[in-house]
Write a structure and sequence with these properties.
- Two copies of one chain form a homodimer.
- The first copy, chain A, is mainly β and 226 residues long.
- Chain A is 10% helix and 30% strand.
- In chain A, the strands form three sheets. In chain A, strands 1-2-7-6-3-8 form a six-stranded antiparallel barrel.
- In chain A, a hairpin with a 4-residue loop joins strand 11 and strand 12.
- Chains A, B: Belongs to the tRNA methyltransferase O family.
- Chains A, B: This is tRNA-Thr(GGU) m(6)t(6)A37 methyltransferase TsaA.
- Chains A, B: One of its GO terms (biological process) is methylation.
- Chains A, B: InterPro entries: TrmO-like_N (IPR023370), TrmO_C (IPR041369), YaeB-like (IPR040372), YaeB-like_sf (IPR036413), YaeB_N_sf (IPR036414).
Protein backbone atom coordinates (compact mmCIF):
# COMPACT_ATOMS: atom_id res chain seq x y z
CA UNK A 1 0.00 0.00 0.00
CA UNK A 2 1.44 3.34 -1.09
CA UNK A 3 0.48 6.69 0.48
CA UNK A 4 -1.54 8.85 -1.92
CA UNK A 5 -1.00 12.07 0.03
CA UNK A 6 0.91 13.66 2.91
CA UNK A 7 -0.44 15.83 5.71
CA UNK A 8 1.08 19.21 6.49
CA UNK A 9 -0.20 20.38 9.83
CA UNK A 10 0.57 22.48 12.89
CA UNK A 11 1.05 19.37 14.99
CA UNK A 12 4.75 18.64 15.16
CA UNK A 13 4.35 15.69 17.50
CA UNK A 14 1.73 13.24 18.70
CA UNK A 15 1.35 14.78 22.15
CA UNK A 16 -1.43 17.37 22.23
CA UNK A 17 -3.10 16.37 18.96
CA UNK A 18 -6.89 16.38 19.43
CA UNK A 19 -8.17 13.00 20.60
CA UNK A 20 -10.81 13.02 17.90
CA UNK A 21 -11.17 15.12 14.78
CA UNK A 22 -13.63 18.04 15.09
CA UNK A 23 -12.82 18.41 18.80
CA UNK A 24 -10.55 21.22 17.66
CA UNK A 25 -12.28 22.73 14.67
CA UNK A 26 -9.80 25.62 14.57
CA UNK A 27 -7.05 23.26 13.47
CA UNK A 28 -5.99 23.56 9.86
CA UNK A 29 -4.05 21.17 7.66
CA UNK A 30 -3.12 20.74 4.03
CA UNK A 31 -3.34 17.30 2.50
CA UNK A 32 -0.93 17.32 -0.42
CA UNK A 33 -1.69 14.76 -3.09
CA UNK A 34 1.28 12.76 -4.31
CA UNK A 35 1.89 11.31 -7.78
CA UNK A 36 -0.02 9.82 -9.50
CA UNK A 37 -2.96 11.39 -7.59
CA UNK A 38 -1.69 14.97 -7.84
CA UNK A 39 -4.00 15.85 -10.70
CA UNK A 40 -7.12 18.02 -10.79
CA UNK A 41 -8.89 14.97 -12.24
CA UNK A 42 -8.50 12.90 -9.07
CA UNK A 43 -10.28 15.54 -6.94
CA UNK A 44 -12.88 16.70 -9.50
CA UNK A 45 -16.18 17.22 -7.72
CA UNK A 46 -14.68 16.82 -4.25
CA UNK A 47 -15.77 20.38 -3.42
CA UNK A 48 -19.39 19.18 -3.46
CA UNK A 49 -18.77 17.64 -0.05
CA UNK A 50 -18.49 19.55 3.21
CA UNK A 51 -16.69 16.70 4.99
CA UNK A 52 -14.23 13.98 4.07
CA UNK A 53 -12.95 10.75 5.51
CA UNK A 54 -9.21 10.54 5.73
CA UNK A 55 -7.78 7.04 6.09
CA UNK A 56 -4.18 7.33 7.19
CA UNK A 57 -1.23 5.61 8.81
CA UNK A 58 -0.29 6.20 12.43
CA UNK A 59 3.30 6.36 11.25
CA UNK A 60 4.64 7.18 14.71
CA UNK A 61 3.04 4.05 16.16
CA UNK A 62 4.16 1.49 13.59
CA UNK A 63 4.67 -2.05 14.74
CA UNK A 64 3.78 -1.59 18.41
CA UNK A 65 0.50 -3.05 19.56
CA UNK A 66 -1.03 -5.46 22.02
CA UNK A 67 -4.41 -7.17 22.15
CA UNK A 68 -5.48 -5.07 25.16
CA UNK A 69 -4.87 -1.36 25.65
CA UNK A 70 -5.53 1.25 28.33
CA UNK A 71 -7.44 4.10 26.65
CA UNK A 72 -6.64 7.52 28.15
CA UNK A 73 -10.40 8.25 28.04
CA UNK A 74 -10.94 5.60 30.69
CA UNK A 75 -8.32 7.09 32.97
CA UNK A 76 -5.56 4.81 31.74
CA UNK A 77 -6.31 2.12 34.32
CA UNK A 78 -9.00 0.11 32.53
CA UNK A 79 -8.17 -2.28 29.73
CA UNK A 80 -10.12 -2.82 26.53
CA UNK A 81 -9.52 -4.90 23.43
CA UNK A 82 -7.53 -2.93 20.88
CA UNK A 83 -10.39 -3.26 18.36
CA UNK A 84 -12.80 -1.76 20.90
CA UNK A 85 -10.75 1.45 21.01
CA UNK A 86 -9.39 4.09 18.66
CA UNK A 87 -5.86 3.57 19.97
CA UNK A 88 -3.16 4.45 17.40
CA UNK A 89 -1.25 1.34 18.44
CA UNK A 90 -3.15 -1.26 16.42
CA UNK A 91 -2.38 -4.19 14.13
CA UNK A 92 -2.35 -2.28 10.84
CA UNK A 93 -1.84 1.22 12.27
CA UNK A 94 -4.72 2.55 10.21
CA UNK A 95 -6.37 5.75 11.38
CA UNK A 96 -9.77 7.14 10.39
CA UNK A 97 -10.74 10.79 10.74
CA UNK A 98 -13.54 12.95 9.47
CA UNK A 99 -12.40 16.45 8.53
CA UNK A 100 -14.12 19.53 7.23
CA UNK A 101 -13.19 20.35 3.62
CA UNK A 102 -12.44 24.05 3.37
CA UNK A 103 -10.79 24.38 -0.02
CA UNK A 104 -9.54 22.34 -2.95
CA UNK A 105 -6.33 23.98 -4.23
CA UNK A 106 -4.99 23.01 -7.61
CA UNK A 107 -2.00 25.38 -7.74
CA UNK A 108 0.91 25.38 -7.15
CA UNK A 109 0.19 21.91 -5.77
CA UNK A 110 -2.93 19.81 -5.66
CA UNK A 111 -3.92 20.00 -2.00
CA UNK A 112 -6.96 19.90 0.21
CA UNK A 113 -7.21 22.47 2.97
CA UNK A 114 -9.11 20.89 5.82
CA UNK A 115 -10.30 21.89 9.28
CA UNK A 116 -10.72 19.94 12.47
CA UNK A 117 -8.01 17.48 11.61
CA UNK A 118 -6.24 15.49 14.32
CA UNK A 119 -3.30 14.63 12.08
CA UNK A 120 0.38 14.91 12.91
CA UNK A 121 2.55 16.73 10.37
CA UNK A 122 3.93 14.21 7.87
CA UNK A 123 1.13 11.67 8.26
CA UNK A 124 0.90 9.39 5.20
CA UNK A 125 -2.64 9.24 3.77
CA UNK A 126 -3.93 6.00 2.25
CA UNK A 127 -7.35 7.11 1.04
CA UNK A 128 -9.78 10.03 0.96
CA UNK A 129 -13.52 9.53 0.57
CA UNK A 130 -16.53 11.84 0.64
CA UNK A 131 -18.52 11.78 3.88
CA UNK A 132 -22.00 10.63 2.86
CA UNK A 133 -24.41 11.75 5.59
CA UNK A 134 -27.22 9.28 4.92
CA UNK A 135 -24.77 6.37 5.10
CA UNK A 136 -22.20 7.60 7.64
CA UNK A 137 -24.13 9.68 10.16
CA UNK A 138 -25.73 6.90 12.18
CA UNK A 139 -28.06 8.68 14.58
CA UNK A 140 -29.04 5.63 16.59
CA UNK A 141 -25.43 4.53 17.18
CA UNK A 142 -24.31 4.31 20.80
CA UNK A 143 -20.92 3.78 22.33
CA UNK A 144 -20.59 3.19 26.04
CA UNK A 145 -16.83 3.48 25.54
CA UNK A 146 -17.04 7.14 24.50
CA UNK A 147 -20.58 8.39 24.75
CA UNK A 148 -19.96 12.12 24.83
CA UNK A 149 -17.29 14.61 23.91
CA UNK A 150 -14.88 15.24 26.77
CA UNK A 151 -15.68 18.12 29.09
CA UNK A 152 -13.58 21.15 28.11
CA UNK A 153 -11.34 22.84 30.68
CA UNK A 154 -11.18 26.64 30.89
CA UNK A 155 -7.95 27.96 29.34
CA UNK A 156 -6.37 31.24 30.35
CA UNK A 157 -4.01 32.94 27.87
CA UNK A 158 -2.18 36.01 29.23
CA UNK A 159 -2.40 39.16 27.11
CA UNK A 160 1.21 39.16 25.81
CA UNK A 161 0.94 35.53 24.67
CA UNK A 162 -2.48 36.21 23.16
CA UNK A 163 -0.90 38.97 21.04
CA UNK A 164 1.83 36.62 19.80
CA UNK A 165 -0.81 34.04 18.91
CA UNK A 166 -2.96 36.62 17.12
CA UNK A 167 0.05 37.71 15.07
CA UNK A 168 0.56 34.20 13.70
CA UNK A 169 -0.20 33.86 9.99
CA UNK A 170 0.00 30.84 7.76
CA UNK A 171 -1.33 29.78 4.36
CA UNK A 172 -4.37 28.17 5.91
CA UNK A 173 -5.74 31.01 8.08
CA UNK A 174 -5.21 29.14 11.30
CA UNK A 175 -6.84 30.96 14.21
CA UNK A 176 -4.04 30.19 16.66
CA UNK A 177 -5.61 31.65 19.83
CA UNK A 178 -8.76 29.61 19.29
CA UNK A 179 -6.73 26.52 18.41
CA UNK A 180 -4.73 26.83 21.64
CA UNK A 181 -7.95 27.12 23.64
CA UNK A 182 -9.45 24.07 21.96
CA UNK A 183 -6.33 21.92 22.24
CA UNK A 184 -5.58 22.68 25.86
CA UNK A 185 -9.27 22.70 26.78
CA UNK A 186 -9.52 19.00 25.89
CA UNK A 187 -6.63 18.42 28.36
CA UNK A 188 -3.81 16.74 26.46
CA UNK A 189 -2.24 15.00 29.44
CA UNK A 190 -3.35 11.46 30.29
CA UNK A 191 -6.53 11.56 32.40
CA UNK A 192 -5.01 9.39 35.12
CA UNK A 193 -2.17 11.89 35.73
CA UNK A 194 -2.96 14.19 38.60
CA UNK A 195 -1.72 17.59 37.48
CA UNK A 196 1.26 18.80 39.48
CA UNK A 197 0.92 22.60 39.79
CA UNK A 198 4.72 22.90 39.71
CA UNK A 199 5.06 21.06 36.42
CA UNK A 200 5.21 22.80 33.05
CA UNK A 201 3.79 20.83 30.14
CA UNK A 202 4.68 21.54 26.52
CA UNK A 203 3.86 20.69 22.92
CA UNK A 204 5.05 21.70 19.47
CA UNK A 205 2.33 23.73 17.76
CA UNK A 206 2.55 25.66 14.49
CA UNK A 207 6.29 25.95 14.88
CA UNK A 208 6.01 27.25 18.44
CA UNK A 209 6.85 25.62 21.70
CA UNK A 210 3.60 26.02 23.62
CA UNK A 211 3.87 25.60 27.37
CA UNK A 212 1.20 25.52 30.07
CA UNK A 213 0.49 24.55 33.65
CA UNK A 214 -2.54 23.35 35.56
CA UNK A 215 -4.19 25.70 38.01
CA UNK A 216 -7.04 25.17 40.46
CA UNK A 217 -9.56 26.31 37.89
CA UNK A 218 -8.12 24.97 34.65
CA UNK A 219 -5.12 25.62 32.43
CA UNK A 220 -2.86 28.65 32.17
CA UNK A 221 -0.61 29.19 29.17
CA UNK A 222 2.86 30.22 30.32
CA UNK A 223 4.83 30.49 27.07
CA UNK A 224 4.57 30.49 23.29
CA UNK A 225 8.15 30.54 22.09
CA UNK A 226 9.57 30.12 18.59
CA UNK B 1 -0.48 -4.74 5.65
CA UNK B 2 -1.94 -8.07 6.74
CA UNK B 3 -5.69 -8.75 7.00
CA UNK B 4 -6.81 -9.14 10.62
CA UNK B 5 -10.11 -10.80 9.73
CA UNK B 6 -12.17 -12.32 6.92
CA UNK B 7 -15.80 -11.67 6.05
CA UNK B 8 -18.27 -14.51 5.65
CA UNK B 9 -21.41 -13.19 4.01
CA UNK B 10 -24.35 -14.07 1.81
CA UNK B 11 -22.88 -12.04 -1.05
CA UNK B 12 -21.09 -14.43 -3.37
CA UNK B 13 -20.20 -11.74 -5.90
CA UNK B 14 -19.89 -7.98 -6.18
CA UNK B 15 -23.04 -7.51 -8.27
CA UNK B 16 -26.08 -6.84 -6.10
CA UNK B 17 -24.19 -5.98 -2.92
CA UNK B 18 -25.81 -2.93 -1.26
CA UNK B 19 -24.28 0.34 -2.52
CA UNK B 20 -23.82 1.52 1.04
CA UNK B 21 -23.95 -0.34 4.34
CA UNK B 22 -27.24 -0.01 6.25
CA UNK B 23 -29.17 0.28 2.97
CA UNK B 24 -29.92 -3.38 3.51
CA UNK B 25 -30.12 -3.80 7.27
CA UNK B 26 -31.39 -7.39 6.88
CA UNK B 27 -27.99 -8.48 5.59
CA UNK B 28 -25.94 -10.55 8.00
CA UNK B 29 -22.26 -11.34 8.00
CA UNK B 30 -19.68 -12.90 10.27
CA UNK B 31 -16.30 -11.23 10.58
CA UNK B 32 -13.91 -13.96 11.62
CA UNK B 33 -10.79 -12.73 13.38
CA UNK B 34 -7.54 -14.24 12.18
CA UNK B 35 -4.37 -14.94 14.18
CA UNK B 36 -2.99 -13.13 16.11
CA UNK B 37 -6.28 -11.20 16.61
CA UNK B 38 -8.44 -14.27 17.21
CA UNK B 39 -8.43 -13.85 20.97
CA UNK B 40 -11.18 -12.73 23.36
CA UNK B 41 -8.70 -10.06 24.53
CA UNK B 42 -8.67 -8.24 21.19
CA UNK B 43 -12.45 -7.73 21.23
CA UNK B 44 -12.92 -7.16 24.98
CA UNK B 45 -15.46 -4.39 25.46
CA UNK B 46 -16.45 -4.27 21.81
CA UNK B 47 -20.02 -5.22 22.78
CA UNK B 48 -20.37 -1.76 24.38
CA UNK B 49 -20.77 -0.35 20.88
CA UNK B 50 -23.84 -0.67 18.71
CA UNK B 51 -21.95 0.09 15.48
CA UNK B 52 -18.50 -0.52 14.12
CA UNK B 53 -16.32 0.77 11.32
CA UNK B 54 -14.92 -1.92 9.11
CA UNK B 55 -11.92 -0.92 7.02
CA UNK B 56 -11.41 -3.53 4.33
CA UNK B 57 -9.88 -4.33 0.98
CA UNK B 58 -11.90 -4.31 -2.23
CA UNK B 59 -10.12 -7.52 -3.13
CA UNK B 60 -12.10 -7.97 -6.35
CA UNK B 61 -11.05 -4.54 -7.58
CA UNK B 62 -7.31 -4.72 -6.91
CA UNK B 63 -5.02 -2.75 -9.15
CA UNK B 64 -7.63 -1.24 -11.48
CA UNK B 65 -8.31 2.44 -11.06
CA UNK B 66 -8.31 5.71 -12.93
CA UNK B 67 -8.30 9.32 -11.76
CA UNK B 68 -11.87 9.84 -12.96
CA UNK B 69 -14.77 7.44 -12.55
CA UNK B 70 -18.44 7.26 -13.55
CA UNK B 71 -20.42 6.63 -10.36
CA UNK B 72 -23.56 4.51 -10.93
CA UNK B 73 -25.40 6.93 -8.63
CA UNK B 74 -24.97 9.65 -11.25
CA UNK B 75 -26.38 7.49 -14.00
CA UNK B 76 -22.97 6.28 -15.14
CA UNK B 77 -22.56 9.14 -17.61
CA UNK B 78 -21.04 11.82 -15.37
CA UNK B 79 -17.43 11.72 -14.32
CA UNK B 80 -16.03 12.56 -10.92
CA UNK B 81 -12.57 12.34 -9.41
CA UNK B 82 -11.99 8.95 -7.84
CA UNK B 83 -11.43 10.57 -4.43
CA UNK B 84 -14.81 12.33 -4.70
CA UNK B 85 -16.59 8.96 -4.91
CA UNK B 86 -16.86 5.73 -2.98
CA UNK B 87 -15.89 3.70 -6.04
CA UNK B 88 -14.24 0.37 -5.17
CA UNK B 89 -11.71 0.97 -7.95
CA UNK B 90 -9.32 3.29 -6.09
CA UNK B 91 -5.60 3.69 -5.57
CA UNK B 92 -5.30 1.60 -2.41
CA UNK B 93 -8.58 -0.33 -2.78
CA UNK B 94 -9.54 0.51 0.79
CA UNK B 95 -13.21 0.30 1.68
CA UNK B 96 -14.97 1.82 4.68
CA UNK B 97 -18.31 0.60 6.01
CA UNK B 98 -20.31 1.15 9.14
CA UNK B 99 -22.09 -1.99 10.33
CA UNK B 100 -24.39 -2.81 13.21
CA UNK B 101 -22.77 -5.06 15.80
CA UNK B 102 -25.22 -7.83 16.71
CA UNK B 103 -23.08 -10.29 18.63
CA UNK B 104 -19.52 -10.97 19.68
CA UNK B 105 -18.94 -14.74 19.49
CA UNK B 106 -15.93 -16.24 21.18
CA UNK B 107 -16.60 -19.93 20.40
CA UNK B 108 -15.89 -21.97 18.40
CA UNK B 109 -14.20 -19.04 16.64
CA UNK B 110 -13.76 -15.40 17.58
CA UNK B 111 -16.19 -13.66 15.26
CA UNK B 112 -18.38 -10.60 15.08
CA UNK B 113 -21.91 -11.06 13.80
CA UNK B 114 -22.90 -7.84 12.06
CA UNK B 115 -25.92 -6.48 10.26
CA UNK B 116 -26.27 -4.08 7.35
CA UNK B 117 -22.93 -5.02 5.88
CA UNK B 118 -22.19 -4.45 2.19
CA UNK B 119 -19.29 -6.88 2.15
CA UNK B 120 -18.61 -9.63 -0.38
CA UNK B 121 -17.88 -13.09 1.04
CA UNK B 122 -14.14 -13.46 1.54
CA UNK B 123 -13.40 -9.74 1.96
CA UNK B 124 -10.11 -9.19 3.82
CA UNK B 125 -10.51 -6.81 6.79
CA UNK B 126 -7.69 -4.44 7.72
CA UNK B 127 -9.14 -2.81 10.81
CA UNK B 128 -12.21 -2.63 13.04
CA UNK B 129 -12.97 0.40 15.18
CA UNK B 130 -15.87 1.42 17.41
CA UNK B 131 -18.25 3.95 15.87
CA UNK B 132 -18.10 6.98 18.18
CA UNK B 133 -21.27 8.99 17.65
CA UNK B 134 -20.04 12.35 18.91
CA UNK B 135 -17.03 12.17 16.60
CA UNK B 136 -18.37 10.27 13.58
CA UNK B 137 -22.01 11.32 13.23
CA UNK B 138 -21.53 14.74 11.64
CA UNK B 139 -25.00 16.23 11.50
CA UNK B 140 -24.07 19.31 9.50
CA UNK B 141 -22.24 17.34 6.80
CA UNK B 142 -23.58 17.69 3.27
CA UNK B 143 -22.77 15.84 0.10
CA UNK B 144 -24.17 17.02 -3.19
CA UNK B 145 -22.76 13.82 -4.70
CA UNK B 146 -25.09 11.61 -2.66
CA UNK B 147 -27.43 13.71 -0.60
CA UNK B 148 -30.12 11.13 0.13
CA UNK B 149 -30.58 7.39 0.17
CA UNK B 150 -31.71 6.06 -3.20
CA UNK B 151 -35.46 5.73 -3.76
CA UNK B 152 -36.47 2.12 -3.21
CA UNK B 153 -38.30 0.19 -5.95
CA UNK B 154 -41.27 -2.02 -5.07
CA UNK B 155 -40.29 -5.70 -5.17
CA UNK B 156 -42.79 -8.47 -5.85
CA UNK B 157 -41.91 -11.97 -4.61
CA UNK B 158 -44.33 -14.73 -5.77
CA UNK B 159 -45.72 -16.97 -3.03
CA UNK B 160 -43.72 -20.13 -3.89
CA UNK B 161 -40.43 -18.21 -3.91
CA UNK B 162 -41.40 -16.43 -0.70
CA UNK B 163 -41.82 -19.83 0.95
CA UNK B 164 -38.38 -20.95 -0.20
CA UNK B 165 -36.89 -17.75 1.14
CA UNK B 166 -38.67 -18.09 4.48
CA UNK B 167 -37.37 -21.64 4.83
CA UNK B 168 -33.76 -20.44 4.60
CA UNK B 169 -31.83 -20.80 7.85
CA UNK B 170 -28.26 -19.91 8.63
CA UNK B 171 -26.15 -19.31 11.73
CA UNK B 172 -26.83 -15.59 11.62
CA UNK B 173 -30.65 -15.50 11.47
CA UNK B 174 -30.70 -13.88 8.07
CA UNK B 175 -34.23 -12.78 7.16
CA UNK B 176 -33.91 -13.75 3.51
CA UNK B 177 -37.28 -12.44 2.25
CA UNK B 178 -36.58 -9.01 3.73
CA UNK B 179 -33.00 -9.08 2.45
CA UNK B 180 -34.20 -9.83 -1.08
CA UNK B 181 -36.66 -6.92 -0.88
CA UNK B 182 -33.97 -4.56 0.34
CA UNK B 183 -31.33 -5.63 -2.16
CA UNK B 184 -33.55 -5.56 -5.22
CA UNK B 185 -35.40 -2.47 -3.97
CA UNK B 186 -32.18 -0.45 -4.22
CA UNK B 187 -31.98 -1.57 -7.89
CA UNK B 188 -28.67 -3.37 -8.37
CA UNK B 189 -28.31 -2.68 -12.08
CA UNK B 190 -26.45 0.44 -13.23
CA UNK B 191 -28.79 3.45 -13.19
CA UNK B 192 -28.02 4.29 -16.81
CA UNK B 193 -29.21 0.89 -18.04
CA UNK B 194 -32.79 1.08 -19.22
CA UNK B 195 -34.36 -2.15 -18.01
CA UNK B 196 -35.26 -4.53 -20.81
CA UNK B 197 -38.47 -6.34 -19.74
CA UNK B 198 -37.26 -9.43 -21.62
CA UNK B 199 -34.01 -9.65 -19.73
CA UNK B 200 -33.53 -11.76 -16.61
CA UNK B 201 -30.99 -10.41 -14.12
CA UNK B 202 -29.30 -12.58 -11.52
CA UNK B 203 -27.06 -12.57 -8.49
CA UNK B 204 -25.59 -15.09 -6.06
CA UNK B 205 -27.22 -14.66 -2.65
CA UNK B 206 -26.89 -16.90 0.42
CA UNK B 207 -25.98 -19.83 -1.80
CA UNK B 208 -28.96 -19.26 -4.10
CA UNK B 209 -29.12 -18.02 -7.63
CA UNK B 210 -31.60 -15.16 -7.31
CA UNK B 211 -33.16 -14.00 -10.57
CA UNK B 212 -35.50 -11.10 -11.31
CA UNK B 213 -36.90 -8.94 -14.05
CA UNK B 214 -38.06 -5.35 -14.34
CA UNK B 215 -41.77 -4.70 -14.71
CA UNK B 216 -43.68 -1.46 -15.32
CA UNK B 217 -44.11 -0.94 -11.59
CA UNK B 218 -40.86 -2.28 -10.17
CA UNK B 219 -39.09 -5.61 -9.82
CA UNK B 220 -40.46 -9.15 -9.91
CA UNK B 221 -38.48 -12.08 -8.55
CA UNK B 222 -38.63 -14.98 -11.01
CA UNK B 223 -36.41 -17.61 -9.38
CA UNK B 224 -34.52 -18.53 -6.25
CA UNK B 225 -32.63 -21.69 -7.17
CA UNK B 226 -29.97 -23.60 -5.25
Amino acid sequence: MTPIATVHSCFGEKFGVPRQPLLADASRAAIELLPPLNTPDAVAGLEQNTHLWVIFQFHQAAGEWSAKVRPPRLGGNKKLGVLATRSPFRPNNIGLSVVRLLEVRLKPKVELIVGGADLVDGTPVLDIKPYIPYADAVEEAQSAFADAAPQMLPVFIPEDIMQKAHAFKDDWDTDLPRLIEQLLGQDPKPAYQKPDPQRIYGMQLCGFNLRWRYTESGIEVVALDP
